[in-house]
Amino acid sequence: MSSGCWVKVERAHMEAVRGTELEPLSDDECAEMLRLRKRVADQEKEIAFLGKASACFAAERFALMEAECANFEISHMAGFLEVSHTGFYRRRGSQYRSEAIPSSVSRSRFFARILFNHRNSDETYGVPQITADLRDEGILSPEKR
């Protein structure tokens, strides 16, 4: 078959399928299809992650993020679990360092001061500010570790 004949047959075929599901996609439609397929794949991953997350209690959220950080972006997991990504990184860093409670301070007094400072701040202070307050009170050593 000559190329001219093939072009004529192909044009007739294209005209016959115009407006049907057999019509080939345009470049814009192909790009949109690829974008939507990627979006669906991302959403399927997010749904799978949320299924795992729904079984966790609040205290386990950061541990789940640590376990899944190879599979998902930290910022996405933090959003799904309604925690801050900075809190995750702060917790991750604190696993490798910790401030020891001086032996002169009992654990019960230490935790009572934490609760007092938190409540005294209308429950707005977090770890950094409470730690600073405990240092100011002499309960924790003044140098940062």
Observed structural traits:
single chain, rod-shaped, mainly alpha, 145 residues, 63% helix
Summary of the model, kept short:
With 145 residues, the protein is mostly helical. The protein has helices spanning 3-17, 27-53, 61-68, 74-81, 85-94, 107-120, 127-136. The protein has two domains: 3-94, no CATH class; 101-145, no CATH class.
Description:
By secondary structure, the chain is mainly α. It has 2 domains: 3-94, no CATH class; 101-145, no CATH class. Helix content is 63%, strand content 0%. It contains 7 helices and no strands. Helix 6 packs across helix 7 (127-136). The longest helix has 27 residues, at 27-53. It starts with a helix and ends in a 9-residue tail after the last helix.
General shape: rod-shaped
> What is the terminal separation in angstroms?
82 Å
Number of domains: 2
What does the radius of gyration come to?
A: 29 Å
Name the helix and strand elements from N-terminus to C-terminus, one letter apiece. Answer: HHHHHHH
Uncertain segments: none
Largest sheet: none
Summarize the helices and strands and which ones pair or pack.
Layout lengths: L2 H15 L9 H27 L7 H8 L5 H8 L3 H10 L12 H14 L6 H10 L9
Helix pairs in contact: 6-7
